[in-house]
Amino acid sequence: MTADRCNWLLHLKFVQKDWNGCELLARQIVQQAKESNDFVHYVKALVLRHQGKLNEACQAFDSCMKKDRFNVDYMKQVGCSLLFAGQHGKAVAMFDEALKFQPDDWIMFHWKALCYYHLKDFLKAKENLKQVLSFAKHEDSLVLLGKILKEESSFEDAIQFYKKSIELSPENCDLLSTLGILYLKVENYRCAFDALGRALSFNPFHANAVFAAGAVMHHHEDYDVALSKYRICLKYCVENAQMWNNVGLALYGKQKYIAAISCLKRAHHLAPLEWKILYNLGLVSLELKQLASAFLFLNASLKFNNKFPLLYVIIAVVLEQLEDFTTAKQAYEKAVKLEQDELLVPYNYATFLMRQNDSAGAAQWASVFFSRLEAHCGSQNDLILSEMVNKLQLPQTMDTMATQKSGTTVVTELVDYELKPIKSLSLNSEYCCSAIALLRILEIIFGFVIVGCVTSGLGPGPIIRPLSGQHFVLIVASVFITVTFTFLVIFFLNLHKAILNSIPWRVMDICICVLAVLCYFIAGSIEIWYAHVSWNYEEIGCASKSHCGNFHITWAVAASFAMANAILYFFSVLLAWSKRRPIRKRIENIAHNERNNAKLSNVKSRTFNHKNSGTCQKNSSDVSNHSSKDAEFDQARSSGGRRVVIPNVRKHSNRTVARNVSDEANRLNAKSFVVASDGPENEQENVLLPQHPVFPDISMVQGELFFECTLFLYSVLVLFLQYLNLYKSLWWLPNSYTQHALKFHLIDLYVLSCVGLILGRRVIWCFLKRLTFITPGCNKRAAFWLLLVEWSLKIPATGAVLTSFSFSFIHVLAFYSRLTLTHLIYPCVFYILLFYNEIVQTFSQYDQPLFARLFNCLSDSGHADYKSLVHACSVVPSQIREEVDVFISDVYNRLKQCLFAAFTTAYYAVFIPCGFAPAYLYIDYVWVAEMSFIVFLTSGTLYLTYLFPIQLCDQLHRAAMHLGKWVYTKSYRFPQTNQKIWSETSLWPDGSMVRMNRHVYRGVGLSIAAQPDNDDHRRYHIMFGDPLRVINILCLASGFLILSQFLLLVHSTEWQHVLTLVLLMFANYVLLFKVFKDKIILGRIYYPSMTHTKLKLK
Length: 1098
Hints:
Helix content: 55-70%
Distance between the termini: 80 Å
CATH architecture of the domain at 4-231: Alpha Horseshoe
Transmembrane segments: 437-459, 471-495, 507-532, 552-577, 705-724, 744-764, 784-809, 815-836, 898-921, 927-948, 1028-1049, 1055-1076
Number of strands: 11
Mean pLDDT: 72
Organism: Trichinella zimbabwensis
Largest sheet: 4 strands, mixed
Strand content: 5-15%
Main location: membrane
Strand order of the largest sheet: 6-10-9-7
Region (Disordered): 601-639
Keywords: Membrane, TPR repeat, Transmembrane, Transmembrane helix
CATH topology of the domain at 4-231: Serine Threonine Protein Phosphatase 5, Tetratricopeptide repeat
Radius of gyration: 40 Å
CATH superfamily of the domain at 4-231: Tetratricopeptide repeat domain
């Protein structure tokens, strides 16, 4: 084949993008050809350019042009290569040269426009693009023209060109998302949402469209939906600074300030020169009253953008709270010079001058504010003015949105939005302890018992129709459980008064209760008929007498509870009817009160406008008076380097915390305490107050739900291993009768279901507590519907769990003896004995309703809420002892929770399978005891690490440092001249000798406020005087468990024991890792190495 005839094959490989094949074929053609083939060199140059070798491609095209200087195709490709190489000026010259020979080629005009676009010569770029569009409509040219208009801020014209490009490519998600962002620029949210919806319909995971849709939801204050959109985008663009900025603002809208600061700091790390992120960081810091951090962030933002007036306003607000009024006034004057038509600037300036007693200036800027407000609103409406006057003096957050495309970032600003708190629903405390509420609770419980009995005894009967017999009973019980629970929630949360007051709930309640009486009476009659002894077993359809006997028991129980429910609903009818009689009189009283209030409101409305400004001034002064004041920082300022002083602020946990009023009173009154009569004033002067190290903000990795899931999975693992040890088989033998490792036919699935539900009770309860849909900013009606959706999920889930447990427990009740069933209730007795004092204390609180007390007693579980225990760092001895007593009671409660959780886990997962095992089954009780010991210690240690996090250990240690301790000594060893009478109003230094109740005690600690004869104080200081003592005990316990299991593993010979010990050791390894990590963190905080000390000094 000749060289010219191979050109088609070379072109085919080029079209197929087979670059290696093109190079091989081109080399063969050059070797075989007797004369030069220009097409081969042309294709080789194109291949080099597609491979990214732009310099070699330019040289190849130059060699082609030397042979044919006036070839337009060569000129176009040389210009295109220069364009890709970034040599835009040379590319324009080459395109101009080519256009002399071929002036109607639109692609060269497009490439020229692209060169001018990169050269920032937008005017010539638009001229060339208009020349292209005069030939025909091309998508790339329309997009480029829209991009140029967008950079020139001509958003309306850019939208038109993008719409034309979408007509040519209607399924292009990039174009649709860009169009949506442009609609966001012009604040046309409806069209933006339509465009983004079309993009998401074609590609639900398109990052730009999802991000923009999330920004729209963010603008409408639907933060949860916005966060879900942002979460999708983070899978594709993790390092997007604007994305993290929006996530931080969404969390700020949900009032999760710590998480918001974390996200905004990550955004600042990714884009350190973005002034909007610094601005938002300043606002969140100001919300947390971290004035120093807020000033630093805002001042840094000012260095990157000094043309934004609200930035000066917020800096002035911070400086005013720092009591730097001169610099705050300068900031307001700078904002006034920059602003053009902003309402917040004159409003804040006027209120600032009013607080500074500058009435003339305040009146001047107030008139400017009202005139602009009247221009904005059209007329001076009293309602609008009152809303503006009652507004906060802080400007709202600034939202930014970004998308990633072709290495560029498109940023747009969303309008300001205002944060709204969650509207909580009030509880009806009278209804909680009323008789009708208790009746409803009993009705629901009886209904679940009926469902469990019917489902466990559901079998053939004399009536064989779809909606007859037991199916009718099951439907009746399920429907009235749901309806009764709905009415219980409505009256408990006062929804019939607050939201749905137009519905006659009392009349509906009476009607439904009457209907329930009739239905339950019919259902009970049906169950009595089913359980009647006169039936013979052939009519019912049972195969044996024993089987039918179980059916008779369950049907009889269901019949009794159905009749009891009918009686309960009858009493509910009587109570509801009695409640309905005084309603008319109450309505008349309410109407009479409203008429009296209307007369008073006419008088008060006359003085509203005069008092409004005074109220605003008072509120502003209260805010400034309660601002934090007690630290000092130096900030170099461009205007002169003024030092700003912040008094009355104390450093704690690596953040600035405003001191409360009681803490300040404690410190002021500490000097006024009179010590004992023996003259310990000198002792008081020698007391050294402990100084605590700065504890960093370390968030808890595992929450309550995560820990409960972890403990439940461990319990399930132990339960599986115990069944493996009990029902193991010899499945590996050649003539074994089973092919499975377990004897599944001996396992009682109903017992297994009951034990599994008992072990998972805490996870289910925690999940139901965390399941909520009420979001910030939702109104009352939306809150009601969200609450309805929430309970529509919780009720079926709770019903399914209770029904499953009832179904399994009925079978266990029918097939096991009563003595065996008592094994299930032994932990309840242990709980009563362990928490007897707490139960008595809970039920002795007569200020709470009975239902609330019962609910608190049942739902009280151990949790790692260390934020409720805050160390006050007081110098008053009585307050120190009171604080330590609170800590001691909380520690005892947590220890009892650990003990009970460890006992229940070991009892239900290890012992209960043995108690319900068949009598002929061999049980190795020595191995059961060893496994119970291991599971008890592991569960207890796991619970201790959760209930005693390092944050709580730090708080307890700080209180122990202030408490100190007294050590009993022999009186004859020390002279009586050094012994003083112990006084409860004194702080004692280290080494003090005091006498109390004929005993002598020596003080140990920097400051000693403990009571000498109080054993709880001594034990508390022994346990928490060293910050690492608790962590060291947990480390030793974990190491002891691992060592003991390893020794058992060495001496084990059976395969199931080896497998059990290996899996349990893995759990202890994870536990040891966590505890050792906490030990390292606390050790670095309290006992830093020399390297860290030198770094701090530097």
